[in-house]
Design the sequence.
């Protein structure tokens, strides 16, 4: 039995704390705690000077199926963030279990991340990582600066599955594979 929600309760303004200075957790403690959460690994792709560029990201999620919307979080002072903000377009290649090399390449702080050795033929959309499980071509709908990062909310303009296989995951600061890839069962939308 599903109970109907009172529409006046949905999307209510958040209550702000009366505390002038809430307790703050140390950055190291926070990142150590978050390392316990396994995350899928994606390469956010864009163009920098007409060349394909990519940045490894684990802060990525599906937001809505109608319209297809995702979010991705990147460092606010990263080349990728500036390129995405300038064009309003980017891609997301979902990396496969055997693509840890490209994940490492896209995660080196401050290094040039031109993707010519890793992408397929250039097309109209965002650069596509060859051999990725899937690729999403996205258009920015909103950018929100928070702390030292930018959250990009984007509509998916095109989505294509490129191959079958297990995903690359990141857990406790190590790239890993999913050990039970054969247990593929559909659970539907987890947020419904």
Sequence:
């Amino acid at each position: 039995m599903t109970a109907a929600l009172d529409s006046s309760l949905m999307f209510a303004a958040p209550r702000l704390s009366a505390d002038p200075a809430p307790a703050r957790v140390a950055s190291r403690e926070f990142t150590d705690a978050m390392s316990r959460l396994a995350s899928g690994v994606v390469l956010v792709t864009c163009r920098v000077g007409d060349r394909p560029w990519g940045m490894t990201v684990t802060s990525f999620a599906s937001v809505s199926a109608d319209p297809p919307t995702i979010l991705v979080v990147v460092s606010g002072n990263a080349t990728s963030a500036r390129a995405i903000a300038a064009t309003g377009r980017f891609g997301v290649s979902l990396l496969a279990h055997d693509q840890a090399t490209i994940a490492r390449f896209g995660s080196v702080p401050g290094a040039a991340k031109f993707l010519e050795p890793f992408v397929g033929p250039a097309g109209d959309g965002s650069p596509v990582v060859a051999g990725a499980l899937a690729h999403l071509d996205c258009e920015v709908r909103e950018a929100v600066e928070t702390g030292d990062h930018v959250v990009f909310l984007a509509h998916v303009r095109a989505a294509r599955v490129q191959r079958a296989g297990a995903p690359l995951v990141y857990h406790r600061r190590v790239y890993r594979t999913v050990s039970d890839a054969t247990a593929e069962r559909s659970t539907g939308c987890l947020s419904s």
